[in-house]
Write a structure and sequence with these properties.
CATH architecture: 3-Layer(aba) Sandwich
Radius of gyration: 19 Å
CATH topology: Rossmann fold
Distance between the termini: 37 Å
Order of helices and strands: EHEHEHEHEHEEHEHEEHHHHHH
Structural class: alpha/beta
Strand content: 5-15%
Number of helices: 13
Strand order of the largest sheet: 3-2-1-4-5-6-9
Largest sheet: 7 strands, parallel
Number of domains: 1
Amino acid sequence: MLVTGATGYVAGWIIRRLLESGVTVQATVRDPSDTARLRHLTDMAEAGPGRLHLFRAELLSPDDFADAMQGCRVVLHTASPFKTVVKDPQKELIEPAMLGTRNVLMQAAKTESVERVVLTSSCAAIYTDAADCADAPGGVLTEAIWNSTASLDHQPYSLSKTLAEQEAWRIAEGAGFRLVVVNPALIMGPAVGGKPSSESFAIMQRAGSGEFRHGAPRLGLGIVDVRDVAEAHLAAAFLPQAEGRNIIVGHQTDLLAALMTLQPTYGTRYPLPRRPAPKALLWLLAPRLGLTRKFVSRNINVPWRADNGKSRRELGMTYRPLAESMNDMFQFMIDEGYF
């Protein structure tokens, strides 16, 4: 089995579960000689019954995945940047996501052993803003909906995930493998090691350092635990009935409500939020906060709704409590010196 982007937040948990199950994992990284960055992966391999083989690969190099993919029946393509503040969205988000997906899936189409490809997409390929939920049938997002509102100027990360997933379906049509797509909401929870660069950790670091001490926005969103996302990938990889797109979300909530779950354990030691930030004030200060007023209007105090029924029925998913995900993540970040 091949896992791309092995040093990533989600990929780390996938690899851990595979190694624990005795699976031989072939994984791609940018630099196999960077022993410090890869230590958590090699430690897992030494502790588990499975075997880990690392291969050098760059997302934008079309020929880099051939050796890593040889002999693999399943490819899990997890590698893709997740950041919301960029200078050049085309270069920093669109090209790595779309071209990386194209390079991996085109190689899968040429590799006879590959029977299934699992793509890590996102709910961002389904919607841009929480306000989009109101336009969905019944006010609830489903796998049948595609994001049609993101652009290079508004939420380019969502555009990158949309274009990458559409490219994957285009390549899979007529190919010799089955494509199964995992569409998680905002992923939270502890990492298996190191300091991931995921936007999720940036959000939590801002909370723990006191940026929201006077109030956190009621930003409508869905949240899912990273360990549950890993389980969804395994189900997508191995279950015979797994197919199509799969919304992976455990909780329909907002940012303040999620951060409030940290109060009982950490509220006396860290400057965590206790109240909502007024939407009108956020709208007024949006440019100074690095936000657009369009984003504030369409996401703050706007409920987010999505149907995770397909993941429960077909992938057998169950979801951890929100407080468990948030508290485990916060403690991990304390232990790793984020605050």
